[in-house]
Amino acid sequence: MKNVPLTDTVFVFVHGAWHSSGQWAATQRALAGLGAASVAVDMPGHGFDAPLPTGYLLPGQPGLLTEKSQLATLTMDDCAGAVLSLLHQVRHHRSVVLVAHSAGGGPASLAAERAPELVDRIVYVSAFVPGGRARFFDYLGSPENATALGQNLNLGDPEALGAVRINPLSPDAAYLAELRETHYHDTPLDRFDRWRSALSPDLPLAIPTTPVTLTATRWGRIPRTFLRCAEDRALAPTAQDLMIAEADRAFPANPFTVHTLPGSHSPFAARPGELAAVLASSADIGP
């Protein structure tokens, strides 16, 4: 086995829907304490530069249900391109580990498919794996995901908006309770309020709806790990297991290494130190 020290490894983090590079900060600090470098990307339409619906920060949030998203024209190619740009910047490290969470699995997978020479291992943290089915919506809508929560969080018509829109600043206590139960149920309430206030309302519709096609000679040759979240209420463990099984059937020469974390869909919020330790243990890039 080729053992690359953590000091020669860089982790490249790709966030999920409505989040930003900032979600990884505590995990990155923990990794730094273990000797590993890391960097996180802001996907197009996310982070401090994310354009917001014009009424989002106004009293009453006028137009939130109907105003077309400024992210409606963003494509999966745009998002994969942001990941690729960062991968090119860090390729001087001996080992590059690409880590994706949730909806970030689509852009990360496409980036790895297009430039497998830039990635030594890819880690999915309860993230979309397009190995068996090409669209994230294909798994979100599967019977295996029927127990997932969050069905009442989406606002308006996603097709008309050009985005999957949520309202992290909602004044509705029941709405916020569902948001917490879906994504952050094991994060203390006072910390949840800080996390939700940092979310963006819009996910470009292209992210969950655009098919991502993978091949055995490119994405399929990269060692891969899946970190299951055992109490995930946004992407049910049965749906996570379905993605793993279908990807392994489609690419049997290079099956997943699987680890299970306790807790919710958001381990970077609830237990970043534990997440960092598991990432560090999975960083070996193989023979």
TrEMBL record:
A Pfam family of this chain: Abhydrolase_6
Gene3D superfamilies reported for this sequence: alpha/beta hydrolase
Record keywords, A-Z: Hydrolase
SUPFAM superfamilies named in the record: alpha/beta-Hydrolases
Gene Ontology molecular function terms on file: hydrolase activity
AB hydrolase-1 domain ranges (all copies): 11-277
Coiled-coil segments: none
Protein's name in the database: Alpha/beta fold hydrolase
Organism in which the protein naturally occurs: Streptomyces crystallinus
